[in-house]
Amino acid sequence: MWMICKKEWRQFFSSLTGYIALVIFLLLNGLLFFVFPDTSLLDFGYATLDSFFRLAPWVLLFLVPTITMRSLADEYKAGTFELLKVMPVSAGEIVWGKFLGALLVILLALAPTIIYAVSIQLLSAVGGIDVGSTIGSYIGLFMLGAVFTAAGICASSFTNNTVIAFITGAFVCFLLFNGFEGISKLPVFASGPAYYIEMLGIKMHYASISKGVVDIRDIIYFGGLIAIFLLITQRNIARR
Predict the structure, then answer these.
(1) Taking Cα atoms as reference points, which of 2, 5, 75, 4 lies closest to residue 236?
(2) Domain with 162 in it
(3) At residue 193, does pLDDT exceed 90?
(4) Tell me, what DSSP letter sits at residue 36?
(5) Exposed, middle or buried by CB within 10 Å (0-12, 13-18, 19+), for 195?
(6) Which has the closest alpha carbon to 156: 19, 225, 221, 64?
(7) 220: how many CB neighbours lie within 10 A of its CB?
(8) For residue 50, what are the CA distances in angstroms to 3, 18, 44, 198, 223?
(9) With the CA atoms of 224, 228, 234 and 240 taken in that order, what torsion angle do they form, in degrees rounded to the nearest 10?
(10) Radius of gyration of the chain (CA)
(11) Could you tell me how far CA 176 lies from the centroid of its own chain?
(12) Domain total of the chain
């Protein structure tokens, strides 16, 4: 499994695409957080990272499929998937190796954003940021990235076309993050099931963790989604 994980890591950084994706992620977050007037924290007048944690999931929604689109689609297209199948590793080890390799890249992308929290704390004249809420928000952002990663790898397991894998992965991530909330607001569901439909989506659970309260039910939700996507992926590659 760790051999597959290392291979995935090296593959992502084997070309400029990986570096460009990370630079764009950090640059876009920096612009949204410090430069653009409608979202700049410098215009708020108080120490908060709310705008970052509100906008970062939307940036991840496109970054993660970019990272995962080649995970299995490229293996199918290049014919190297057959080499993986004859190696002494199970389908589950291949899937988990791919997942952990991509997740490490997500962690690498998120790690520099801690500078934002440090900067706000230093710039704050009184009080500073809410540490508990910030830690909870980072946990939520990591869990969100993990679900997006599992969904992206799952999408990549259905096709040998990386563009289709990207579009499918981005669509599934969007549906999970914002789709259920949008459906719950339809008038036909307003009388009762709206709350339960919204609970199926990620946004409610992400918002809950971002308050600094790490509820075991939210962790189970994220873990369950990851397990479902990885199980589907495992069955896909086992059939090939």
Answers:
(1) 75
(2) 2-239
(3) no
(4) S
(5) exposed
(6) 64
(7) 11
(8) 38, 28, 10, 21, 24
(9) 180
(10) 19
(11) 11
(12) 1
Interval 125-143: pLDDT, tens: 666 677 778 888 888 889 9
Interior/surface letters 78-97, b for 16+ CB within 10 angstroms, e for the rest: eeebeebeeeeeebebbbbb
Query: Considering the entire predicted model, what is its pTM?
Result: 0.87
* Angle, vertex CA 175, rays to CA 173 and CA 176, nearest 5: 65
State the alpha helices, DSSP H only, in the chain: 2-12, 16-30, 50-68, 73-78, 81-86, 91-110, 114-123, 131-156, 162-174, 180-184, 194-199, 202-210, 216-239
Find where tokens 């971002």 sit. 210
Q: Which residue has the tokens 């459906």?
A: 183
Tokens of 124: 């704050």
Structure tokens at 180: 């259920």
CA dist., res. 27 & res. 24, Å (int): 5
